[in-house]
Design goal:
199 residues; Urease, subunit C, domain 1; 2 domains; 4-stranded antiparallel beta sheet; 11 strands; elongated
């Protein structure tokens, strides 16, 4: 099924997805005229190729992402350092659910690819299930580890035939995305599927 994604501030860079692949990239009006039967998804802001988060091991193996049912005891923010290590030592089975929640947080920040050597099977499984791409870790890392690293690492431009992996951010341009960060994400598409949508 064809789906045409267009963002308010980047109508010249609309994306036509055919299942898991990109069929075309170009001006919205042209793509809509050429494919009138395509389902249209409209987003505020801009469409981008999505982000690479180079901190997969730090965020998925060394950080505990609390279950919402634990909010009264652990809060809602990711827990790192010795506190996370103590949680995993006390109950190693928590790693899998935490990694899945961590991946969901990444998707909510426009992440479509991760980097860094994952060693724990539950974290690897969470990345595979989400069908996130796995890329090379850059030689110089933006630091410190974060869901919205500074600077952000955008993937190469979208091209026809490439996997349909991209994100929409509620900002007027890329400069504002850099200033405000990946928390402005309103939609993430991986493998042609809408895997995150802001409420």
């Amino acid at each position: 099924m064809l789906t045409l994604h267009v963002a308010e501030h980047s109508p010249e860079a609309a994306v036509l997805a055919d299942g898991a692949r990109i069929a075309a990239v170009g001006p919205y009006e042209e793509l809509a005229a050429a494919h009138p039967a395509a389902r249209v998804r409209r987003w505020p802001g801009i469409l981008t190729p999505g982000l690479l988060n180079p901190y997969a091991p730090e965020l998925l193996e060394a950080t505990y992402h609390p279950d919402p049912r634990e909010a009264d005891r652990l809060g809602t923010e990711p827990i790192g350092g010795e506190r996370a290590r103590a949680i995993f030592r006390a109950d190693p089975s928590l790693l899998g659910a935490s990694a899945r929640r961590g991946v969901q947080r990444m998707l909510a920040h426009g992440t479509v690819a991760v980097a860094g050597e994952l060693r724990a099977r539950p974290a690897l499984d969470a990345v595979r299930r989400a069908t996130l791409a796995v890329g090379q870790r850059p030689p110089r890392l933006p630091g410190p580890p974060a869901l919205s690293p500074t600077p952000l690492i955008l993937l190469p431009p979208l091209t026809p035939g490439a996997p349909a992996r991209f994100a929409a951010f509620d900002v007027p341009d890329r400069g504002e995305l850099v200033r405000r960060g990946a928390g402005t994400c309103v939609a993430t598409v991986v493998g042609g599927r809408l895997v995150y949508r802001a409420r």
